[in-house]
Design the sequence.
């Protein structure tokens, strides 16, 4: 057998990388959870919350509340705006290439 004769397939290498990343993420999650349970990060958590509170703007707060409430004016505005933007590109023929089959059928 040659030196370094066995090489993992590309699929095996990719799977190993994904599993290693998932294991690392799980270990980090467990570590942070352990610190939270012990109460060691309360000071850092308070500092982050205070920094966020200092940069809070009334218009941003109301927009965030609207977005979290399904059916709000902000949500409908953004949805209809996105839909009109999409339709305008589709009508001019500059739409996404995934819809090209629709344009071909309409031409016949």
Sequence:
């Amino acid at each position: 057998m040659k030196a370094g004769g066995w090489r993992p397939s590309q699929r095996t290498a990719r799977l190993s990388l994904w599993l290693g990343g998932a294991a690392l993420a799980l270990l980090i999650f467990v570590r942070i959870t352990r610190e939270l349970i012990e109460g060691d990060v309360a000071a850092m958590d308070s500092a982050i919350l205070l920094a966020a509170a200092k940069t809070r703007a009334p218009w941003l707060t109301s927009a965030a509340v609207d977005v979290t409430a399904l059916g709000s004016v902000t949500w409908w505005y953004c949805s209809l705006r996105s839909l009109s933007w999409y339709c305008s590109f589709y009508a001019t023929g500059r739409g996404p290439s995934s819809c090209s089959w629709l344009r071909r059928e309409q031409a016949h």
